[in-house]
């Protein structure tokens, strides 16, 4: 896709996180974006408190596209601190949406599969009824509603799930680290979802932002998850297999073995029909992306360490 004809300015909010760092890399280095007419700015959590309306307005001023990757992400912690989680995931997003409404900026806001109940058997459509089962999901739904209310023409909510990448704690990295420490691992097989590589999602967000600027992407909800689906058990086995480790070291169990403060959806598979309306393809199959991700330096280093575990002491 070609770059916009008019100079544009992109702002990545939450640029210090796993997805945020990939976004900055994609927007800054990709040949389709690396153009003097396009400027990429970034704000980490320390640099921009999205619960501060004045600070948000100042940061958004002059921007054409704002990508919000900032969020309260402690799912279990939200159970006992729901007001604090909602201040970031709800009120903070409302501040961003209000600022974008005032300037005419396009807002690409990251949300989650947790807005759904998770008891389905078919992929959730973008317009499926929401019904979160935990505080984190409720806080994220508040943000979605703010975008829909304040930016009916320029607001884009992109739900993602089961995110992993090079820059931060995530399931794939944890599995590879534990491979160097344990002979076997028990992983749940009764939760279904779509493992999504943060770098691939960053590329998709770039394309959506360009389509939004070009006027070819309708505002509303999109599902930014990988194609296909699996379980945590399936993802762990695939990670081992693609890293050259024995997948039989991964053993199946169920969620009762890992009780958490916040209930988790059992079925988090999302449908991708709406990308066609924007003239874009959905993200690649999760296994294809995982194979590519494991070739990146950080994951490759973890795989090498797993093949040469250190002796205790």
Q: Order of strands across the biggest sheet?
A: 2-1-3-4-5-10
Q: Which residue ranges are poorly predicted, with pLDDT under 50 across at least 5 consecutive positions?
A: none
Q: What is the number of helices?
A: 9
Q: Name the structural class.
A: alpha/beta
Q: How many beta-strand segments?
A: 12
Just name the CATH architecture of the domain at 8-169 and 196-227 and 270-283: 3-Layer(aba) Sandwich
Work out the strand percent. 15-25%
Topology as a string of helices (H) and strands (E):
EHEHEHEHEEHEEEHEEHEHH
Radius of gyration over C-alpha positions, nearest whole angstrom: 19 Å
CATH topology of the domain at 8-169 and 196-227 and 270-283: Rossmann fold
- Sum up the overall morphology in one term: globular
How far apart lie the N and C ends? 54 Å
Helix content: 25-40%
Major beta sheet summary: 6 strands, parallel
CATH superfamily of the domain at 8-169 and 196-227 and 270-283: NAD(P)-binding Rossmann-like Domain
Mean pLDDT: 93
CATH class bucket of the domain at 8-169 and 196-227 and 270-283: Alpha Beta
